[in-house]
Write a structure and sequence with these properties.
The chain has about 260 residues and is an alpha+beta fold. The chain is built from six helices and eleven strands. Strands 4, 5, 6, 9, 10 and 11 form a six-stranded mixed beta sheet that branches. The chain has a three-stranded antiparallel beta sheet with strand order 1-2-3, with no helix packed on it. Strands 7-8 form a two-stranded antiparallel ribbon. The protein binds adenosine-5'-diphosphate and magnesium ion (MG). Adenosine-5'-diphosphate binds next to α2.
Length: about 260
């Protein structure tokens, strides 16, 4: 997804919000979770099974539906929100991923295809990384090495085998975000939230019986609100926070250009 052109996000307010449409600054957007999933989620799952990494970023101003799109209603904090008709992209992706893994295992049974998936959930607030699966870990460090690439040191990773495991992990982790509420000024709208799944597959080559491995990564990101952070009148924490959000979103914009 490409961020809107600079200056477009301004201080527009969300005027109307109905079940499937949203009016922002006079423009009405209609969307449907299943359509979004077909467009973005299905290719993402196929990429993952082919050994490629994929990332989805929800970018936009506060109130535009980023959190709803990524997890589901009420910040995806209840099982029913992650299972119901309105469930977000993340539960749909994992539902599909586990179903496809099952199919692939049957298809490649003679090669003993096997998958292991592990997930982590983190929040970036004021340039500090908190482990949402173990919030006592508050100021984690980003490291890079030749073997693992860029990674967050000591970040909790939990193995998941099915959608229930993923739902339980999300309910626990999203509940640890700074503020669960969806009010425009809630702190959750000023932090980035990153859900990562690493899928490792192993299978035997028929010809020589040797094992081969494939690793791929899915990143699902709920970004902080992109509204122009008002610096007039802002001081202390609020000002620092605004600067950090603007800096990280523009860095991301440069990377995606
Ligand atoms: N497609 C939608 N259908 C119904 N309600 C929605 C939809 N998208 C967002 N909402 C509601 O609008 C409000 C703002 O959405 P939210 O996802 O919290 O925005 P953001 O994360 O971008 O700040 C929330 O109360 C959310 O439940
Ligand atoms: Mg949000």
């Amino acid at each position: 997804m490409k961020p809107p052109d600079k200056g477009e996000e301004g201080d527009t307010i969300v005027q109307k919000l109905s079940k499937d449409s949203l009016t922002i600054g006079g423009h009405t957007f209609t969307f449907d979770s299943e359509q979004m999933f077909q467009l973005v989620g299905v290719p993402l799952v196929e990429n993952c099974l082919s050994g490629f990494n994929s990332s989805v970023f929800a970018y936009g101003q506060t109130g535009s539906g980023k959190t709803f799109t990524m997890w589901g209603p009420a910040n995806g904090m209840l099982e029913e929100h992650l299972r119901g008709e309105q469930r977000g992209l993340t539960p749909r992706v994992f539902e599909r991923l586990f179903a496809r893994i099952k199919e692939e295992k049957v298809k490649h049974a003679e090669r003993q295809l096997n998958y292991q998936c592990r997930c982590s959930l983190l929040e970036i607030y004021n340039e500090q990384i908190t482990d949402l699966l173990d919030p006592s870990q508050k100021n984690l460090t980003i490291r890079e090495d030749v073997k693992s690439g860029v990674y967050v040191e000591n970040l909790t990773e939990e193995y998941v085998k099915n959608l229930t495991d993923v739902s339980q992990l999300l309910i626990k982790g999203l509940g640890n975000r700074r503020t669960g509420a969806t009010s425009v000024n809630a702190e959750s709208s000023r932090s980035h939230c990153v859900f990562t799944c690493v899928a490792e597959s192993r299978c035997k080559n028929v010809a020589d019986g040797l094992s081969s491995f494939k690793t791929s990564r899915i990143n699902l990101v709920d970004l902080a609100g992109s509204e122009r952070q008002k610096s007039t009148g802002a001081s202390g924490e609020r000002l620092k926070e605004a600067g950090n959000i603007n800096r990280s979103l523009s860095q991301l914009g440069y990377k995606l250009e």
